[in-house]
Amino acid sequence: MNLGVIGTGRIGSMLATALAVAAPNAAITVYNRSWDKAESLADTFPKTIQATRTLEDVVTRADHIFLCLRPNDLRNVMRAIGGMLRKDQWVISTCSSISLYELETFCDSLVCKLIPSVTQRANAGVALVMFSERWREHQRNAFVDTLSCIGRIHTIAEEDVRIYSDLTSCAPAFFSHLALSFQKAAHQKGVDMATAQMLIAHMMEGLGTLVASDIYDFTTVIERVAVPGGVTEAGLKELTKMDESLFDRVLDATARRQREILDGGQH
Q1: Are residues 38 and 120 in the same domain?
Q2: What is the rounded distance in angstroms from the CA atom of residue 261 to the CA atom of residue 95?
């Protein structure tokens, strides 16, 4: 498997690392305007990742190319490489604000958008994909099979990207914030921070497995744990005092900020 990653910032370096760990026999070519970032990845995974100083090298070597760039940089790179791209190459953009329609104007390749999550660093979690109409079913299936090594691949419609990315890409930060508050509260009661983090992390892992495996849903978990008149029920009563519109406001805030970014010309 020959892969290319253009742009090795937070997302690009995370994807390159996740792919190198999950597919050690792959050949990954990385490019970044700052040579040091690309070279650092190659030094970390010398058998899998090779850094290059030219975009042409990435296009020539890779069957599938990840474009992990900001909107204006993405357009500039697509203008530069569009004429070199082959029809059978996968061109995978991690930029949600540039449409599939616009991306297709730059090339004849199979274009899609991928919204990864930090959880892919552990080859876990969900990555969202949006396919253009050029993709046939067998090609979509091949994409999902190829990328499933870094996590669960979930296909969505392009117009649904905001709410779905809140659930998969933003949510690790949201729930880490809640977990950190829980960790600090336990520390105030005498549990050292490292132990509290370990216990909460493994609890979250177990909870995720219960629900993802369809053993229980979230409601059933509550029913199973919160015995009437017990200590868990007492704790839940405190949680229910929180404003029930909290996550409504969280989702409204992300949608509002997305509109501000687009209206401000950062697209």
Answers
A1: yes
A2: 13
- What single letter denotes the amino acid at residue 138? H
* Cα atoms found within 13 Å of the Cα of residue 1, Cβ hemisphere only: 20
Residue with tokens 């921070």: 193
Q: Would you state the structure tokens that stand for residue 203, as one six-digit string?
A: 């609890």
What is the token pair recorded at 105? 């104007």
Query: Can you give the pTM of this predicted structure?
Result: 0.94
Of 120, 155, 190, the position where a domain reaches its end is: 155
The band of 267, judged by pLDDT with boundaries at 50, 70 and 90, is very low
Same domain, 179 and 220: yes
CB–CB of 67/6 below 8 Å? yes
Cβ(236)–Cβ(222) below 8 Å:
yes
Q: Are residues 168 and 238 in the same domain?
A: yes
Contacts of 244 (CB under 8 A, 6+ apart): none
Q: Which helix (H) or strand (E) holds 172?
A: helix 171-188
Q: Which string of DSSP letters, residue by residue, matches 144-164?
A: HHHHGGGSEEEE--GGGHHHH
